[in-house]
Design brief:
There is one protein chain. The chain is of the alpha+beta class. The chain is 25% helix and 29% strand. The protein is built from 7 helices and 17 strands. The strands form 2 sheets. Strands 8, 9, 10, 11, 12, 13, 14, 15 and 16 form a 9-stranded mixed beta sheet that branches. Strands 1, 2, 3, 4, 5, 6, 7 and 17 form an 8-stranded antiparallel beta sheet that branches. The longest helix is centred in the N-terminal third of the chain and has 15 residues, at 75-89. The radius of gyration is 19 Å and the shape is globular. Bound molecules: 4'-deoxy-4'-aminopyridoxal-5'-phosphate.
């Protein structure tokens, strides 16, 4: 892998990157019942800072509940381990991937009795979808049904849905895909939430069939603080195609403008003024340049 770092935290200890290995009969490898997070850390004038660490750790533990997975560390221990992993690898900025999974020792669908293993890796990872406005394709796959799976949990196996939709979009020459929900309303991207701007107001799909994104809630807070009206509601493809601006939010994607949806240009196909404004405030916040949002940062050198 490109961008590898020195150490990976595994079950309470640091091991060399190349030694962070598991058995092929690891339960989660077969059935997908694991939980993970994607977190970013950024360079600030006080050294690297993890963005919204508490919220990510809370979501990790919440995702584990429906699987009856008992994570053998406390939230505080995982948060500390995240910071230590950033620190020991001496990277200024990048991505953090904690994962908790049912390990080796038991097969069969019921994971009860399988050990729970946890690891945390970090690596430098720049912009996920690039800096320009992206071209998006509505997928033929719908976002997972909340009565089949736990739509608001970040469970490994859910990402087969995201992968299928992403492959479809990439093969058709698009940058990213958009998934509808089982009612035909807008859900989200494969790893991003979506927002639309119309007449100076911002809308995003309500919770229910989407991952409650931590970037989504940060952007909603920033918009409110800026006095921009923002609401959650059912949105249709027509709403999106007639929007003044569209953008994705996500830890990896940060704030990414959408320039085209299914070949229809949004505005002039480039980032619009409200997206630009929110993106600039967000990027300042993650780099510790906006005191109002410093509460969202956990400095690893504290
Ligand atoms: N939706 C899905 C399906 C995702 O995987 C992600 C990435 N975690 C998001 C939305 C955005 O969430 P966040 O802002 O917390 O990264």
């Amino acid at each position: 892998m490109e961008n590898k770092t020195e150490k990976i935290w595994m079950d309470g200890e640091f091991v060399n990157w190349d030694d962070a290995k598991i058995h092929v009969l690891t339960h989660t490898l077969h059935y997908g019942a694991g939980v993970f997070e994607g977190i970013r850390f950024y360079e600030t004038e006080n050294g690297p800072a993890v963005f919204r660490l508490k919220e990510h750790v809370d979501r990790l533990f919440k995702s584990a509940e429906p699987l009856t997975m008992k994570i053998p560390f406390s939230k505080e221990e995982i948060a500390e381990a995240v910071k230590e992993t950033v620190k020991i690898n001496k990277v200024d900025a990048g991505y953090i991937r904690p994962i908790c999974f049912f390990g080796y020792g038991k097969m069969g669908l019921n994971p009860a009795g399988a050990p729970v293993n946890c690891s945390i890796a970090v690596w430098p990872w720049g912009s996920y979808l690039g800096d320009d406005a992206v071209k998006v394709k509505t997928s033929k796959y719908i976002r997972i049904h909340p009565k089949s799976l736990i739509a608001d949990a970040k469970i490994c196996g859910h990402y087969v849905n995201s992968i299928l939709a992403s492959v479809e979009a990439k093969e058709a020459g698009f940058d990213e895909c958009l998934l509808l929900d089982y009612n035909g309303n807008i859900a989200e991207g494969p790893g991003e939430n979506i927002f639309c701007v119309k007449g100076g107001e911002i809308y995003t799909p309500k919770l229910g069939t989407i991952l409650p994104g931590i970037t989504r809630s940060s952007i909603m807070q920033i918009a409110k603080d800026e006095g921009i009206k923002i609401g959650e509601k059912d949105l249709t493809l027509d709403d999106l195609k007639n929007a003044d601006e569209l953008f994705f939010t996500g830890t990896a994607a940060e704030v990414t403008a959408i320039g085209q949806l299914d070949g229809k240009k949004i505005r002039n196909g480039e980032i619009g003024p409200i997206t630009s404004k929110l993106k600039a405030i967000f990027m300042d916040a993650v780099h510790g340049k906006n005191k109002k949002y410093e509460k969202w940062l956990s400095y690893v050198n504290d």
